[in-house]
Design a protein that fits this description.
Oligomer: single chain
Structural class: alpha/beta
Number of strands: 11
Radius of gyration: 18 Å
Number of helices: 10
Order of helices and strands: EEEHEHEHEHEHEEHEHHHEH
Shape: globular
Length: 248
Amino acid sequence: MYHVVIPARFGSTRLPGKALADIAGHPMVYWVWLRACQSSAESVIVATDHDGIAEAMRGYGADVAITRTDHISGTDRLAEVVEQRGWSDDTIVVNLQGDEPLMPEANLAQVAQELVAHKTASIATLSEPLAQVDDLYNPSVVKVVTSQDGTALYFSRAPIPFPRAGDEATVLTLRVAQRHVGLYAYRCGFLRRFVTYQPAAIEQLESLEQLRAMSYGEVIRVAQAKQPVPTGVDTPEDLEQVRAVMRG
């Protein structure tokens, strides 16, 4: 069994208030919550520090956890929820971002099962093949490389693996390169450790929080997503795309 926690904050650099942005007559975070409720999760909790989000989601009958306003990341917010609920170190929590209204619910169960199946891992996440060459060089598209058994070796905004030998190598790279999907499952014991870790240099350089965990020796499992992952909502353009999908 696993729990889903949806960190939902009101502030956003590129799209302020996006958690409450209207999509087909409901706030975006409602659709994220509904997806999670359709999964096999034992419980679904919306974690927020914003009264408007809490009020809106309670109106739908959602379980809402009020968290502090000073969290640097969604992972820190999850750790607070873990303490509020008193979950054991072995309990598995899936972090579903509040801007992923189209995330297939099958992927939630998949990422949780990765931790069930691999006892030495602290974190599990998903990936999928890169769609095009431009994605390899796009710093907004996070890439991941793994060992043969699916253990993460590194995450980067840079092109990894790097095609040294020109166009032919680039084509080959696209056959093996993987885009990281920002869906995570954590053991609660890891979350309790994570909030004690100091930020790592590689984390700060890449602006990728999972590199802090790796720098402290935490094992991350990576599996290919069972179902394709549609775009999340980071920009006004993303929001319009999701609205179009929902209208369709």
